[in-house]
Amino acid sequence: MFSILADIFTSKEAREILKNKFVLMIGDSVVRSCYKDLIKILQTDNHLHDHQLKAKGEISFENDTLLEGGSYGVMSNDVTYTEVREFKTNIHLVRFYFITRCYSDYLVSICEDIKDESEKPDVVIMNSGCWDITRYGPNSINDYKKNLPMGIFSLIRVLPSHTVFIWNTTLPLSKEVRGGFMIPEIYDKQSKLREDVLEANHYATKVMKEYKLDVLDLHYYFLNHIQRRAKDGIHWDATAHRRITNLILNHLCDVWDIKTPGRIIFKNNPKMMSLPENYEFFEEKENKANYAINNLPNDLTKKIDQMANSLENEISTEKSNINYNDAKRFKVNEYFATNLNNQSSSQSDFNKHPINIYNQLNYQAISQIAKNQLQNHLTQILTPVFEEKLMQSNLYSSHQQPNYHSANINSRHNNKRKFSYED
């Protein structure tokens, strides 16, 4: 299951959704910020502050507890850094583990903790990528592909069947990254780092699909919100993390069949434009018209060819600056379309025009559907020629101007389309 869009949740609604739930979050500093925003919304509607997002290893944050690592250990940016935090109330339990690799002895110890505890997680939210592909040698991306399936298997084998496992894809990085997992020894990898993130996300998605686990594609979503990225090119601001929290809550509502607040309405097949009923795009009309023309009766096709030849002879006698080939092509089709639409016109009206040969057509040979399709096709294609060429010719007197209404020309530009903007 993939989730991209999300409703907006209040603190009260978040508490209700996660009531009596155990949420386990495993990952790097970005996941730690997700953990902080989640326990923040469980207590208040306020967003995090920048200094709260930057801090790590603090003894207590928003009434949570540092269980191990962090300030109790060695504060560093080394791969051996650990941090375990927990927020617990009478009805909520949220725990966070900091990891630097998707599969390691430390992850195995986390799995052992889950196995030994009586309370099993109802939700597991996990991501591991940036540290894996940068801090473990030149073959780190290949090692990541080997380790990820083993790490996921180690987790899901100690989780109950009702647990919702959500894999967050790694968020997009900037061209220039500094701080966090970036150390001077790997600065030369920056040019390839974003490509490695894409490759890692793609592979992780395939692994989750194999294990039938859920994916929250944060990388895809936040490509359109890079203005929320911090200056270090890795982390994100408070607004982005509240958005991630909403994405997580919305996903859980889908899984648990909980009605969302409805502040943002989504449609299964959202339409960016509001078009009239039975509206057909030009390509569709053209295809139908081509089919109708190509399947006309043979006797009717012969009559049209005969009329075209007669028309060419008539036009050749006129002293006009109009291009004969265009006139032939246009007049055959335009008057044919006009006559199809105006069968009620009198015989005298047709005799006023030099192209009275069209009265010989057997209109009954074409079905009504074929007539409409042919008419739409011809009028759309030939209207520009009708305006540019025919108006310059001397075929009509000044009082016999073309009747646009009788040709049933569809001036779509007068019907402005209405747009509806959706999140």
Shape: elongated
Number of strands: 10
Order of helices and strands: EHEHHEEEHEHEHEHHEHHHHHE
Poorly predicted residue ranges: 269-275, 319-341, 343-367, 394-423
Beta-strand share of residues: 5-15%
* Mean pLDDT value: 76
Strand order of the largest sheet: 1-8-7-6-2-5-4-3
Structural class: alpha/beta
Helix content: 40-55%
Number of helices: 13
Main sheet properties = 8 strands, mixed
* Rg of Cα set: 35 Å
User: How far is the first residue's CA from the last residue's CA?
Assistant: 20 Å
Characterise the protein shown here:
There is one protein chain. The protein has 423 residues and is an alpha/beta fold. It is 42% helix and 10% strand. Strand 6, helix 5 and strand 7 form a beta-alpha-beta unit. Helix 11 crosses helix 13. The radius of gyration is 35 Å and the shape is elongated.
Entry keywords:
8-stranded mixed sheet, single chain, about 40% helix, 10 strands, disordered C terminus, about 425 residues, alpha/beta, two-stranded antiparallel ribbon
Outline of the structure:
42% of the residues lie in helices and 10% in strands. The chain is of the alpha/beta class. The strands form two sheets. An eight-stranded mixed beta sheet has the order 1-8-7-6-2-5-4-3, with helices on both faces. A two-stranded antiparallel ribbon has the order 9-10.
